[in-house]
Each structure stands twice: as C-alpha cells, then as structure tokens.
UniProtKB/TrEMBL annotation:
Gene3D superfamilies: Enolpyruvate transferase domain. The active site is at residue 116. UDP-N-acetyl-alpha-D-glucosamine binds at residues 92, 121-125, 304, 326. This is UDP-N-acetylglucosamine 1-carboxyvinyltransferase.
Amino acid sequence: MDKILVRPKGPLKGNVRISGAKNAALPILAATILGTEEIVLEDVPELKDVEIITEVLRKLGLKINKDGNRLIIDPSGLNSYKTDYELMSKMRASFLVMGPLLAKLNKAYNSLPGGCNIGSRPIDLHLKGFRALGANIEMTHGEIKAECDKLVGTKIYLDFPSVGATENIMTAAVLAEGETVMENCAMEPEIVDLANFLNKMGARVMGAGTSTIRIRGVEKLGGCTHQVIPDRIEAGTFMVAAAITGGDITIENIIVSHLKPVIAKLAETGAKIIENDDKIRVIGTEEIKPIEIKTLPHPGFPTDLQAQFMALLTQAEGQSAIIETVFENRFMHAEELKKMGAKIKVVDREAILLGKSKLYGSKVAATDLRAGAALILAGLVSEGETEISEIHHIDRGYEKIEEKFRHLGANIRRV
C-alpha cells in the first residue's frame, strides 16, 4: 500500500493550476449515455473515480478513447442496462448512470453504490424522482431495478437539495415526454455544468443553479465538445495551504464566484486574498485568527472543505468552532489530527478547536478523500515526519497532488 510522507519546509510559494472538477466530470460522464453522436470532454481530471466510471461506461458498450485530459466518447454502442457490481461498489457516483439508462433504454439495473463512509447518503430521493417520472422500482438483495414503458414529465419536490438526486433526476427527465419541474434542487456549480453539457447536446434545461429547474423533454440528444469546470474544492485546498504555511500561492484556472464562501472565511482568518479574473492569490498571515464555520448546501460553506479548514484552525490563536450540517459522520479526521497533537473536542455535529496546537509528525490514516487532504496540510506545519496511509482515498479526488505541492516547495513524497 502506498503512503504519503510529509515534512515541514516553511511557507509554500508559487503558482498552481487547478484541474477539472471531479464532481462535475462524474455526472457529465454518466450523462454521455444519453448521446447519439461523438462527445469530446476536455479538462477531465486523471483520477481513480474517473477511471471507475469510465470502466462502468465501457462495460455498458460505450467506446472511450483517452488523450491526456481529453476523452473522446462514442455512445452509439450502448448495449446494456445492467451495471457491473464490482465497479459500482467502489464509488457512490457510479449510481449516476441510472437516470441516463432509464431515459435511454427504459430500463436500469444497478447495484447499491459504495464510496467514502462520511455518513448516510440515502438514494431514496433519486428513486422518488424516478417513480414520479413513471418508473417502477424494485429492490432486491443489494440490486435496484427500474423499468418503465416511457418517462413522462411531472412536478418533483426534493425533500433535501441533494446534488446526486438533482443530477440523476435531471438526466432522466431530459428525454421524458412533456415538462418536468424540479423544486428544492441543489444549486452547486457542478449542477450548472451538467445542465450546460446537456443543453449543448440538444436538451432543454432551464434554471440550473437556482432551486427550481425546468426541463422540456426532447426526442434525442446528439453530441458536443465540452470543457469541465475547474475544481473549486481543489482550489480551496491550495488556498488553505497558503494560509496554514504563511505562504504566497497564486491559484490558476478557477471561477472566483464558485469560491465566495471560502474566500470570505479565509479572509476572516487574516489571510490576504487578491482576486483576478480566473486566478486568485492567497498570502498567509503570521497570526491565524480563530473563526466559526457552518457547512451548508451551496451557496453556503462547502462540506468538502470542512476538513481542510479544521487543519488550518488547529493553528489559529484561540478557540474556533465548526458545525457540520450536511453529513453526520464527517469528523473522523478529528481523531487523526488529535494523534498529531491537535486540541479538538467533538460533540455530535460540532467540533471545538483550541489553538494554537503544536503539531507533531505521526502515523495517520486518510479516513476519506477530504480528510486525506487535511492531513497533508497538517503535515506541512508539523514537527518531524507525517506518514499518511489509506491514500487511495486522496487519489479519488486530487490529480497529481504530491507533484503540485512539490512545485510549491513542499517536502512531500509517495512511497
């Protein structure tokens, strides 16, 4: 098993280019099932999760050629509505093929999805949406079968603004007969990117990025060329890296509006932030100020940056608090940070941090994807060597992470 070793080496400085967003690429890749002509996707990150969903698509009959961060996809060979159990069990986002399969073939047989163990993420909202569109759902022994004569547009209210459910129902509805109105939708930038991709192929999706999405069904979708949006979570991770090390990093290939809550909270800690079109410069401060954070669905503070900010706040001068409202089991990294000397008290969904903690290099494990990033950040300011295991989680969401950190001057290597 590979491990990542991190040693402190002072402030990080330089420029880093952000990769395409994992959380945009995965639903877009699933939605390529809907096409009938060649699709070219650009700036697709080279990640384990992308590999898995690409393999899921190949087993369904799609032809996919890879040229670096560019994928050329021929969806015309789609010949199966059954997904591979082993692949599906590795990654939750693989469940996003269900909507497109149901729309295209009127059938979808899926295994229950796997992924990071960060809390319950029930798929009942996905299934509720499919049923509303006219699908019959049957669940047996870890498998879900969805079938319909045809999907028909309707009104769907989501009990919670789930990103995955919004994406899955949207991709099912684009070929449904008539109009579908989805309410209380997730408003994340990745939803907007998916809608833009679908519309380029000929779909009629309106309102993505707001709580109400209207979809007028069309008979078929064609092909297109589409560039995946930059990864706002990777951008946020490197912004925190500048702040925690007292460094000076320019983060390139970003969309500033996607990072507003992160910019606001980082500024509260005392970091200096200079915005400039598609890049942002973050200059760390000698004294990190304590803050309070509450994670919320977009446009609130993203849960996917909670762990990284926890690492940062171990170095704040005073007491900070983090309230996690999105996932109930997303403080597992707190125990790993405590092994390094962090003073953290977790009660239910709130973490209290008593800074400034003296951190020491230790043997720790990445309990999930973002926890792994947080441990790298903590290792950058710990005395001695930090050894991070279970780094397959990190590889699911960060492209060439050690290479990017080394380019900024970090002492980091994989063994």
